[in-house]
Amino acid sequence: MDLEKQPEPEKQPQPQRPAAPAATSPSFVDPQGSLRASDADRDRIADILRDALAEGRLDPEEHSDRIDAVYRAKTVGELEPIVRDLPAARTVRETEPALVWGSDETEGPADNLVAIFSSTTRKGRWRVSRRTNAFALFGNVEIDLTEAIFAQRLTTINATSIFGNVEVRVPENISMRGSGTGVFGNFEVVTLEGADPQAPVVVVNGYSVFGNVEAKPKRGKWITNLQGRLRKNLGH
After folding, report:
1. Residues 181 and 163 sit within 8 Å (Cβ to Cβ)
2. Rounded CA gap, 133 and 156, in Å?
3. Among 214, 121, 77, which residue's Cα sits nearest to residue 159?
4. What is the pLDDT confidence band of residue 5, given thresholds at 50, 70 and 90?
5. DSSP assignment of 120-143, as one string?
């Protein structure tokens, strides 16, 4: 007698194992150093350099070179090595409210003031660029910042005078530094230290050959109510 063929038991579906997560590709990793640097990042590094210059840790030439590197830097990773050998602990400054500066293109063109057998003057209510180049050849360039609108923390003026004269006038309550040389001429920058830690900083670099480069405060000219005035002028 034939045995009745028993139906085969149904195969139970095997539980699916969860797929192992794919390894993160290194190309998607964004380390801190690759972040784009902001104006605030650059200003923080510039503050450290300013203090190092005031304390004698940097000479004017080193300060000038590092400041140039700060504003050429594109990322945070490029900024940090600039101050790696300097004290960077700024606990007092970090607790102070940051001043609101106007937005400004970090890579914007520089202002160029040229006087060749002539005279060029920039004064009154004008918006100061991050970088200004002044060149005088048998001429005179006058830069008056006493009523200017500072749209950024650091302003650099590169002044060259050949048988000419470049004069820079600033308010008494900002910070100012200088680095330059006079060859059979005069290069004079009065060092200022603003009482307000958020005051604008003006750095004057350059040289004169049989000429004169001079930067000093203008007596009686002050930026009053620094934070409020800048916010109003910049439309904040």
Report:
1. no
2. 9
3. 214
4. low
5. EEE-SS-EEPSEEEEEEESSEEEE
Residue tagged 């001079």 (tokens): 214
Distance, in Å, from the CA atom of 31 to the CA atom of 51, rounded to the nearest integer, reads 29
Interacting residues of 18 by C-beta distance below 8 A, sequence separation 6+ = none
Q: Are 166 and 139 in contact (CB under 8 A)?
A: no
CA atoms within 13 A on the CB side of 121: 4
> To which H or E segment does residue 91 belong?
helix 91-95
DSSP string, 147-167: T-EE-SSEEEEEEEEESSEEE
**Given its phi and psi angles, is residue 70 left (phi above 0), alpha (psi -120 to 50 degrees) or beta?**
alpha
Whole-structure pTM value? 0.54
Please give the span between the terminal C-alpha atoms of the chain, in angstroms, as a whole number: 101
pLDDT tens per residue across span 171-188: 988 889 888 889 999 999
**Which sign does the torsion angle of CA 98, 100, 105, 109 carry?**
negative
